[in-house]
Amino acid sequence: MKRLNCLTMYAIAAIVLFCGGFANAVELGDPNVTVTDGNVSITNTGGAFISRLDVNSPTALTGSTPIRMTVGHSGARFFMQAYGSGAAGNLQNAATLGAVASRLLIGADAGASVMFYSNGQFATGPGHLFIQGTPGATMGFVGIGNNAPTTKLDVTGEVKMTVANITGGSDLAEKFEVRTVANTKIEPGMVVCIDPDKPGQLMLSSKPYDKTVAGIISGAGGLNTGMLMGQQNSLADGAHPVALSGRVYCMVDTEADGIVPGDMLTTSSLPGHAMKMTDHALAVGSVIGKAMTPLAKGEKGLVMVLVSLQ
To answer: Was domain 171-307 assigned CATH 3.40.50.1970?
Structure first.
């Protein structure tokens, strides 16, 4: 058969692939490219077809004999490559892949993770997108700009979006270290104030009408934190999410007065508790927010608060 140029060969292959028709194997000008009963084979040396397009290697896969598919040219290409480990069905990492303008690696490590790299980043950088395939607690975690995601989506760098629709929580909180007072256990729903002895940190409230009031520890009553901010390894970090805005449940002292929706709340002498504000002169700077649910006088429990420091 007269040797055909590449364009003609691929055109014939496409026609046969989608239309079928040849009962016997047809060689398209190259003994390594054949079409059999509508199936296209490239370097499948007499083996059985496993798909409509079967791209195979004439030898066992090793670090130096990969299977790869390339579309484009050396300056800009779509590139898929697989390296073998010597054992059937296995793929391995290969630090010698070289600098290629674009690369897609699928199942390129023992855990069958999916990795997207560019500009030779395989050996030098974390790549652009990583999907964790190693079985375990982090399986399926996605990393953008890093290859060790610790959450469902772990992004290294700035994120830009039009709207963030948060459905898992109802407040805006920051992470703080919180100091206890009077050996009181720190719990979600407690009121906290600025700690005068520790810059950037907080402490449980412990006196009425405290003008250093800062917020309420998030997470009480089944209401989760909606958005959590902080900066690791800095003063803007800590173990407790403190709600600065939004809706949270709060521990309330009702020994003197009950609470009805709309009441302004301030700090109490009971550590970590709020109480109804009744003295307007003292209230300036010490209001935590407004009550949204009631609690009768003398009753113990939580009150939903719309946090609004005043």
So the answer is: no
